[in-house]
Each structure stands twice: as structure tokens, then as C-alpha cells.
Amino acid sequence: MKVLVVNCGSSSIKYQLVNMNDESVLAKGLVERIGLDGSVLTHQPEGKDKVIINADISDHSIGIKLVIEALTDAKHGVIASMKEIAAVGHRIVHGGEKFADSVLITPDVMKALEECIEMAPLHNPPNIMGVNACSKIMPGVPQVAVFDTAFHQTMPKEAFLYAIPYEAYEKYGVRRYGFHGTSHKFVSQQVAELMGKKLADLRIITCHLGNGSSIAAIKNGKCIDTSMGFTPLDGLVMGTRSGGIDPAILPFLMKKEKMTAEQIDNYLNKKSGVLGISGVSSDFRDIEEAANAGNERAALALDMFAYRVRKYVGSYVAAIGGVDVIVFTAGLGENSITMREKICNGLEYLGTRIDPVKNNIRGKAQEISADGSEVKIFVIPTNEELVIARDTKTICGNLA
Ligand code: AMP
What we know:
Helix content is 37%, strand content 20%. It is α/β, with parallel strands linked by helices. The chain has two domains: 2-147, 2-Layer Sandwich (Nucleotidyltransferase, domain 5); 197-384, ATPase, nucleotide binding domain (Nucleotidyltransferase, domain 5), CATH 3.30.420. Strands 5-4-3-2-1-6-8-7 form an eight-stranded mixed sheet, with helices on both faces. Strands 11-10-9-12-14-13 form a six-stranded mixed sheet, with helices on both faces. Helix 1 (60-72) crosses helix 3 and helix 11 crosses helix 13 (337-344). The longest helix has 24 residues, at 296-319. Adenosine monophosphate binds at residues 210-211, 239, 283-285, 288, 330-332, 335-336, 362. Catalyzes the formation of acetyl phosphate from acetate and ATP. Can also catalyze the reverse reaction. Substrate binds at residue 91. Mg(2+) binds at residues 7, 384. One of its GO terms (cellular component) is cytoplasm.
């Protein structure tokens, strides 16, 4: 069975064609600048040269059509015809409270996705466009929605509610939803497997540290709390996002700087985080380089980032009554040896000891805690596409 995994942004389509017989990736690629000048498809078939196709890609349907053409092309294709694609799995950012698991997309599901637009105005509309584009170009092929929010739906009410009038939750669904759910789910399952333990017996803290960062407290395989909230702005310090701040800062700055609601939203989402503190970049590689060259604000940004992660780890230990293993994943978590060290130095009180030699790795699944460390530490590369492909296979496999 071959599954096409699709992740649509407002002007982009990321895709992977996965052979579910052995979970190998047959091809992957990216359509960029949809609806803009210079739109392009970069197609990477497994074991063959990368192909760059410049074309006028005015909408997502044309983008999907080009992806199918690339996948079935006589020279750089990997399948003989579109008929080989048994199902499509879509990454959908927000599933609200309606979806605690992945689902087969039906007209009713589409209606529910439309209702979630208000909560994810930047993300859900392009996700929906992707589903519509696939329906148009590949009619009859079953499609599955895999939600960033679903894994966190097990959070108890005391963890997901904000202490504002209850009516805000009832009327508008204002609550903590959490994001990066597929990643937290994947690495928690992987770490249990690597440790040779049952998920049901573990207390896990998963740190997804990338441009967007979030952390989750997982007990018996279920998410108990997570740092992103109603939107992906809450929680940890991020590349350009502030993470949690005193909400009273918003009206204060809006008055002082004469900012509109949209402007303050942009300020907190795009101009803050390690970019706002360092003034250097949102990319941790640039900030680490600047800090090494003596830039004090770059060093401060890294310290603030690590401090916030440590603080969350401490609070999540309290939330789940201890911890057996801490997992690092995503761009920074998988690759930054120094950031992992910075975070773990200071967690020794938990019985956590990082091994500097084992920690000297990038992008590889491995234990990095020292022998005898009571709490284990692991690096696990995330693979959200594989989770989407697996869920799609499970749901569509049951259709036959
Ligand atoms: P993601 O959002 O998961 O793709 O992660 C992107 C972030 O990971 C960027 O800020 C990168 O700077 C960071 N990153 C990737 N590789 C490294 C590395 N070798 N050292 C430090 N940061 C890295």
C-alpha cells in the first residue's frame, strides 16, 4: 500500500510518498511560492537526482497536479500511475475538541474543519485547500486527517482550562489545545520501544525544540499537559515567538506603542523569542555562533531558552509525579549538543545526568544519559510524516 502524505501551508505543499509495506520513502518534495512569482516544485525521488520544476503554480490544485505528474513521470517518477496511491494523509493543524484521533475525511469532517478555522486562521485554511485539491485531482482516493492537536485531547480539565470566566470556554472554545501532537506521540512511542518498556509504565517529558517549540508531560502513554495553548504562541521561548508572558503586557504595550490587535499579534509571533532578545536571528545556529563570538545578547537568548525549558521540565515532573525519561527532538533538540547540555545542566536534582560523550551526536536516536542516571535522557529524531502515513494506513486499511 502506498500513501501520499501532504502538508499544505498557505503558499506551499510538502509531500512524501511512503511505501507502507516497509515504511520506505519513495519520493519527497516541496512546492513553494504557490500563487506568487517564481513558483517551483523540488522533487526528490529516492535514489535518483533531485528535479527542480519551475512552473506557474497559481493554486494548490495545480500544485497537487504537478506533484502527481512528478511522481508518475517516466524519468524521475517512482510509480507507474496515480492508481498506485491508495490513500492520502493530511497534516491538519487544529482539530478543536472534536477530534481526539485521526479520521477519514467525509463531508461532515470537512464541515467540522471549517468550524475550526476561527481558532487556526493561518493554518487550517491552507490545510483545507490541500484536501480540496486532492479531491479534485485524485477523485475517489480516500483521505485522512491527522491533527496536531489530537494527541493532547487526553489532558484533564484542570490542565487545559484557563482561569478566565468559564463562558469563554463554553462560547468560544477558549482553552489549551496544544500542538506538535504527532511529534510528541511519535517520540514517546519510540523511546518506550528503545527502552524496552511499555508506554503504560512510563512517565515521559518530551521536548520538541525547533523554530516552534513545545514540551509535553506524558503518563501511561497519555498527554497530561503541554506548553502550547489556545494557539502555538504559549509556553517556551521560540525562534520568533515570545512563549508565555504576563497577559497584562499586551494592553500596556498596545497603549504605549499605539499597536492594533493585529500588530501586537505580529509582535509576539514574529518579532519576539530568541530573535527579539538576541537581535541576531531566529535561527539557533546563527545565535550560537554569535554567542561564541562574544555577543552577550545572543548568549542571553540561549540562556533564557534553556532556563524556560528547565522550568517547564520541573513543573511537568510535578504534574505527572516524577519522570522516567526526558526526550529531545526536532531541529534544535536533535542537533544542538550545546543546548541539550545547557538544559540538562541544572536538572541533576532529578537524578538526571547527561553523558557528554554520548551527547556528542546529531540527528540520531540514542540515549545520552550517563550510566546509572536515574532519569534517562534520549535524543529521538521526530518523524511526523511517518505517523501520518501509519494512521492513514490503519484507517484506510479498515475500509476494504
Ligand atoms: P525545526 O523547526 O524543527 O525545523 O528546527 C529548526 C531549528 O533547528 C532552527 O532554529 C535551527 O537553527 C535549529 N538547528 C538545526 N540544526 C542545528 C544545529 N546543528 N545546531 C543548532 N541548531 C540547529
